[in-house]
Please model this.
Amino acid sequence: MQFTSEQRLDGNLIEREFTLGDVPGILWTPAAVSASAPAPLILLGHPPLGLRGMYPRLVARARQAAADGFASATIELPGSGDRPRLPDVEQARAGMRRAIEAGEPVGDEIVDALVLPLVDRAVPEWRTALDSLLALPEIGGPVGYSGGVISIGIRLALVEPRIAAAVLFAGSFVPRAVFQDARQLTVPLHVLLQWDDEGNDRQASLDLFDAFGSEEKTLHANMGGHTGVPQFAGDAAAQFFTRHLR
Model:
């Protein structure tokens, strides 16, 4: 991990950009953390829209995390931002758009081609980033995962024993193979669902929640579209992390 920039955004938040090989990322830490008082860590997932496009929402989540005493970090997804495109995923994304525009269902073959290559590439990169982040003296466990492509969050929480709890955002296509992962998942879960999300198959989201094997799992459903998550829903997710990471 190589840090490329550092700035103080406000009185309680330090932002450092880094690269991990060819993968860019950002680390946010409360100003008060130190080797003698390390902060728990929240990994901030996001959709494949590029770190720059997602930055305003990511830094808002980082500010909330810092206010609660947590460090937070994110990395650029494969095929996003300035990273090389993934031709097979781009082709699948085009097929998905054609199906939606034609009012046709998005078949399992398209979903698999769209999501599984991203999961297979992103999860090892997240684990490598976690190795480097936890090696920093000011960062400690436990670790939480929040948001992003839900299939990545499920697979990462399943295979990464250092993740103690996860907040997952419903609203993206989920391959059948990831449903199998969900049945094996045991960490505490807090799932956010926007009831009127125009791009989400609500029943599929409910079926996925039912499939989760975790003994502690909460579904927080609210009226409104994809970007209309109310503030109190975010507050409940923050309280979930405070309960499990403190």
